[in-house]
Amino acid sequence: MSRRRTVAIACLAAGALGVAGCGADTERHTTPTAGQPAPAPATSTVAPAPQAAAPPRFRGPLAFNVRHRTQLRSSPGGRVVATITTKTEFKSPRILAVAGRRPGWVLVRTSVRKHHVGWLPLKSGHLFSEPRSLVIDLSARTLTVFHRGRPAGRYRVAIGTDATPTPRGKFAITDRLRVRPGTDYGCCILALTAHQPKIAQGWGGGDRVAIHATPHVSAIGEKVSHGCIRATNAALHRLMRQMRLGAPVTIHA
Q1: Superfamily assignment of 131-252 in CATH?
Q2: Are 107 and 118 in contact (CB under 8 A)?
Q3: What is the rounded CA–CA span in Å between residue 35 and residue 139?
C-alpha cells in the first residue's frame, strides 16, 4: 500500500477487469439329456454397458470458480463463517485458490477476515488448473513467476517497512485492476487475499494487500510501503497478461 492516500484500493472497483467446471446379462443354463452333447454357449449380441466418464484430472495448483452464491464453512458441512458470492467487491469473477479437497468439498483461500481459508461445496462451482504461481522473497526483495513449477520470470520489488511489514504466508490473486494515470499505483494492481494487520496511524486506504506498479522507480528494492509489493509499470503490464485470478501467491522471508 502506498504511503499517499490519493487512491485507496477499496475505491478502485470501477477499474476491475472481467477475466479472466450394471446389470450384466445372465445366460440361462440347461441340463443336457443323456447321450446328447451339451449345447454350445450362446453368443451375446448385447452391446456392453457404457463406461462412466472418468473424472477430469487436474495439474496443480488448482483454482475454484464460484458459480453459485454459497456459504463458507469452517469444515466440510460445519459452521457457516461467511457468504461467498459469484463476484468480488471489484466485480471480478470469484475465483479462489484451492488449498485442499475432500469428497464433495473444496478448501479455498479467501479474503474474508479471520477466515483466510474455508470450505465450499464442490457443487457450487468448478475446478480448473492454474498454470502459473508467484513467490515473493522478502529478504531478496524479488518476485518470481513460476510456470508449471519452473521459474519463468523474476522482478525486483519494494516491500513493507519494518513498522508495516508485508505479511507472510500463502495467498492468492483476487482481482486484476487497471488504474487511472497519475496515481501512486502506477498502471495496474493485482489484489491479493492478504490483509495488513499492522495499519499505520492515519492510514485510510484499507487493509488489503496488493502487488501494484509505482511511478517511483527509485523505491524498487527498498522497504518503503505499507505492506504492498511494488514493481515497475513494465513488470505489472507483463504480470497482468500472465497471471489468472486465483493464482497462488507465496510470501516468505
Answers
A1: L,D-transpeptidase catalytic domain-like (2.40.440.10)
A2: yes
A3: 92
